[in-house]
């Protein structure tokens, strides 16, 4: 783990109870281990959010480039709704 830095982190009583409960249940050896696991999960989630945001920005840029180049179609809400219904029906399990 390298260098260890000690930190004091205030948290609401409800969160502290959850952390202590995880340790008491034997899921973790210490409260520090719970916090480290939570931070690892947060770090992974944050990296995915950053990737998704970058992909969204790239899609927006591509869309704006299409508009600027005249590669657009007339807005047809009925066509969009129908496409959405077809996609939803394809995902829904048959009853």
TrEMBL record:
Keyword Hydrolase: no
Any one Pfam family match given in the protein's UniProt record, by short name: ParD_antitoxin
InterPro entries membership: ParD, ParD_sf, Ribbon_hlx_hlx
CDD domains for this protein: RHH_NikR_HicB-like
Record carries keyword Kinase: no
Keywords: Toxin-antitoxin system
Protein family: Belongs to the ParD antitoxin family.
PANTHER family: ANTITOXIN PARD
Name of the protein: Antitoxin ParD1/3/4
Protein source organism: Labrys monachus
């Amino acid at each position: 783990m390298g260098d260890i830095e000690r930190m004091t982190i205030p948290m609401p009583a409800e969160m502290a109870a959850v952390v202590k409960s995880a340790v008491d249940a034997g899921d973790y050896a210490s409260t520090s281990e719970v916090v480290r696991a939570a931070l690892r999960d947060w770090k992974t989630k944050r990296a995915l959010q950053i990737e998704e945001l970058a992909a969204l920005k790239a899609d927006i840029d591509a869309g704006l480039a299409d508009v600027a180049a005249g590669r657009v179609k007339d807005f047809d809400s009925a066509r969009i709704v129908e496409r959405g219904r077809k996609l939803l029906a394809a995902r829904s399990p048959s009853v």
